[in-house]
Design a protein that fits this description.
about 200 residues; mainly beta
């Protein structure tokens, strides 16, 4: 093959190189604004649980958000704090069963409905991210509404909102808690991510 032909092939290869190759990986920064909150709004009691014990990463090409976004988020279920020690113990032992299932894991995902296909510094994009939630030993497909913000060149912020139905993950509500623990839990995930160096 002549050098000129090789040069043309290399140029064509660069032009048609898939956008996913340009994806960059960002790591979740625990604490410092990273927090998972669930809200339970049952007829007899309303409360929320919070944790900052979150690990994970996101890989995306911020100039082509119409491509798939790869993401993995792991949450330490035993670390959720509802503001009441006894309730925390009940939640860990009777509902989440954290001895058997210590983590909830979300893996995504397919992107749809994005408000823009590129995310510039100082801007935000709304989108729907679909992936799989592994909770209490049950894997289920789940979609969440996400606001993706880019405060600086090397930082992303994610705010995701979704609902988890306890029966979908075989999480029991003992009879004495039927009026105190909602069947559906509203979840808000706030993640701070830094680009890998």
């Amino acid at each position: 093959m002549r050098k000129s032909q090789l040069g043309v092939l290399l140029i064509l290869g660069l032009v048609t190189w898939p956008a996913s190759v340009l994806a960059e990986r960002y790591e979740v920064v625990p604490g410092s604004g990273t927090e998972i909150v669930f809200q339970s709004r049952a007829p007899m009691e309303k409360f929320e649980g919070k944790t900052g014990k979150v690990q994970g990463w996101l890989s995306a090409d911020v100039s082509a958000l119409d491509q798939a976004v790869e993401m993995e988020v792991r949450v330490d279920l035993a670390s959720f704090d509802t503001g009441m020690g006894k309730r925390n113990t009940h939640m860990r032992e009777n509902h989440f069963e954290t001895d058997k299932y210590p983590q909830a894991i979300f893996r995504g995902g397919q992107v749809s409905g994005q408000s823009a296909t590129a995310l510039a510094v100082g801007e935000k994009v709304d989108l729907t991210l679909t992936g799989t939630l592994d909770l209490h030993g049950v894997h289920r497909e789940m979609s969440c509404e996400v606001t993706l913000t880019r405060p600086s060149e090397g930082e992303l912020q994610v705010e995701a909102r979704f609902e988890v139905l306890l029966p979908d993950h075989r999480i029991k509500r003992p009879k004495f808690l039927i009026m105190k623990l909602a069947e559906d839990q509203k979840v808000i995930a706030k993640l701070i991510l830094k680009k890998e160096s």
